[in-house]
Amino acid sequence: DKGRYRHFMLKEIFEQPQVVNDTLEGRLVNHKIIIETLGANANKVFADTRAVQIIACGTSYHAALVAKYWIEDYLNIPCLVEIASEYRYRETAVLPNSLFITISQSGETADTLAALKKAKEQGYLGTLTVCNSPASSMVRESDFTLLTRAGTEIGVASTKAFTAQLVSLMLLMVTIGKAQGMDEAKEKSIVDALEHLPNEIQSALEQAEAIEDLSEAFAEKHHTLFLGRGQQYPIAMEAALKLKEISYIHAEAYAAGELKHGPLALIDKEMPIVVVAPKDNLLEKLKSNIEEVRSRGGQLFVFADESANIQSSDGITVFPIKSQYAITAPMVYTIPMQLLSYYVAVIKGTDVDQPRNLAKSVTVE
Ligand code: F6R
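A: This is the predicted complex of the input protein with fructose -6-phosphate.
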């Protein structure tokens, strides 16, 4: 039932504060992260883990790419991420003491499942799935399961499942870290950020009307670029995927530092450029990337932290986002990106919940 919403996708976007609460339920105890459902053996495997390999497709792959930033930053262990359709068909080398992780909303994606079956023959320490479907093949085939609690997702374009994946991956990252002696201060700083996340997502949702107005600027365009740096680069990739999927506008994401290596040639006044600019250690570098684009006549739409000190001016429209914690900023900045693709699709009159040529669960390769 769509309730008061025009599409399931919009309903699912607005469910995200609750989805985050549900995903955290019972897992934050006295400001500590405890996941009881992984089973006793998991901690032993986590203590021995010296590398992580993550496999997924589509939106779930973008969640994996964000997790890579966290795992290498907080745990200082290598994290490799690959799309399932590549991994399953090539000769792969396994780093010693690696943990194999799949991420999937449906738990039935054919390529991801095949990659998991292959991994079981390859000498990993163990296999773990971050999955939204408790009764799925991936849950059955994996040693360990961390359930995301997004509830049933009906819109073909994944929204709330993505947010639940990111929250779950953060819980998992800390759980692996604790098995390896992560200090309490680090854990507490992550718990603080997670506890504030539902409210931060709520205030991002309050931008819906402003983003609906903004979407007019995209509906007639044929291309859009999304820029981010660091852990926001995968968020830019996810934003580009959403826009392609439901509004049929060609979109690409670039790590902002890569612009001068080619894509700057695309910039003219017909090319809208969306930038995700949270307050982090890369903000100053991102600002110079913004200037590179503006000075070449690009039309910039910058989603920036309130305190980022980027002003709207000729060629730049700024949308303030409240996100106090750098680590959870990917979840917060995802919200305006989802809303943007949604409202552009509505103007274009596409079938938002059931975009052409796509299926919710890709059980054939
Ligand atoms: C994008 C989308 C797809 C899925 C992909 C993987 O909005 O829905 O890209 O993310 O097909 O599906 P799961 O997560 O079920 O393995």
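The first strand starts at residue 28 and ends at 29. Residues 57-60, 104-106, 109, 112, 157-158, 241, 245, 361-362 surround fructose -6-phosphate (CB under 6 Å).
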